[in-house]
Amino acid sequence: MNWDFIWGLLLTLCCCSLVHSLDNTAASESLNSLVQNFAFRSLVKHRPQTGALYDALLPRNLSGMDVSVVRLRSRRLWNKGANFSYFQIPPRTMSIPHVRRLAIVYQNLGNWSSLYYNLPGYSLISSVVGFMVFDASNVTDPSMRNLTLNTMGQPISIQFPNITFMGMGSINSRVRCVAFNANGTFQLTEMSSPGVCYSRDPGHFSVVLPLEKKRGPWYSYLWAVIGFVVGFFGLIIVGYAGISSTRLLKSKRIQAMEKQANEDQVLESRWVGNSKMPSAAVTRTQPVLESGVL
Fold it and tell me: What ranges in 137-288 are assigned the alpha helix state H?
């Protein structure tokens, strides 16, 4: 076997996987920059009121994707939190670094979800939704700073209302929440409440199910052969056990009969060669003199 060829093949596959992951990361970063630009245009156009949610106007080639933006004071975020779109940011949340005003851009990728985000071995069963936080002290500045949030240990809840696998408030045990990070990594967590996932940071999120492994016709044939072999040997073992049990019972019966015959017999038994012969005790008749008159 040519081990150099095998190592070369494995290296090629790893490189291909890495390039594919980098391509997806670059594509998602480009998309984030694009929707951020359209969201800020909406803020400038509407002269926004603080705390009002505005829908961004997207080009036709992004139809099926929803983007909205809200501008908040940091003090309001601290006192009341932010409950917009699919996300509920709890009170006592502050931006890092601290700014006076901030803008939250919400995304729902809709039918574009699987194009920009995918997870090996899993399938998306909901749209990818996400939010990003920016410094909105000057909305006309095209280079707004990206911010992070400190929720003081409280979770940010994400609602997924249109998941069809949920029924009667139950949760499929195989369902997982996934958080996609900006560097291309991801985290999988269990869904503790129906249609709800949790996070502590901005990002993109979805709900996934593990893919079922497809089994070819050879799989059924293999199990049929295994079943036949196991059944055949099982039948042989059962037959051997039955024959052995019959022989053992027959032998015990013969021994019991011989024992009973030995106990009931009057004559003694003696072995002559390989044969067992009855033998009576030798008793000599004593002579008796006859008396008479001659």
Answer: 217-264
